[in-house]
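[Q] Does anyone have a clean structure-token version of this?
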Amino acid sequence: MKSTIEKREDGTIELKLTIPSTIVKKETEIVIEEYAKSATLPGFRKGKAPKKLLEEKIDKAKIKDEVIRRLLPQAYVEAVKEHNLKPIMDPQIHIEGELSDGKDWQFHALTAEAPVVNLNGYKEAVKKVTAKGKIIVPGGEKEEPKLDEIIKALMGATTIKVPQVLVQKEADRSLSQTLDEIKRLGMTLDQYLTSVGKTAEVLRAEYMTKAEADLKLEFVLHKIAESEKITVTDADIQKTIDNAKSPSEKESLSQNRYLLASILRQQKTLDFLKTL
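[A] Here you go.
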């Protein structure tokens, strides 16, 4: 199998995958043979129908789908290894042209690696915000800095470019959740858009903007956690699980320990920023 790579300016990685016709033909024959072992045709015992007759009756689209299911992941994995990539998301796959018999099959795969984060002088920027919380005015109380002020200073000091393919995926996930909520309310999308006074285009643009901001903050906090060696212990995770408000919440947290660890690490990093 063959592949070429193109890295876009925003960090999105495009892989062009080519599966040679010889490999397609060989895998197709294997799939048909496997199908023949369990196929039943009138007048023949199971698995005993002539191959030629089976090929005339077989669902070719179904066979092609199975061949794609087997070969495409293999082609993608080989390309990732060949180009020494470390993807952080499942690829978005697109078929290039028609997948014809006797011809090479070509696909496009969009993916991304973790973006580069430059923390610059983030501590100095954050300290300008947290400094007011350290000043005690006689007869008054300390003015604790708000978290959104700290985050604004942090993001203003750091630089990061998030691949659009990641932003789109996050926006799609959030939109999907919103659509599910709208359905549960017994509303159509058009009814919802009318109620909030927005078009579908405006709604998606808002979700894209929010997705990009959320991802930037997530990657920046992860970078700070790494540089400051901020970690989450098993004891931290178990304490959160034990403090769950209900048995169902406790069960959910127990089943998602990795996600919980990530959330706790982010919170520890935010707490660290407040101490600067």
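[Q] Thanks! Anything notable?
[A] The mean pLDDT is 89.
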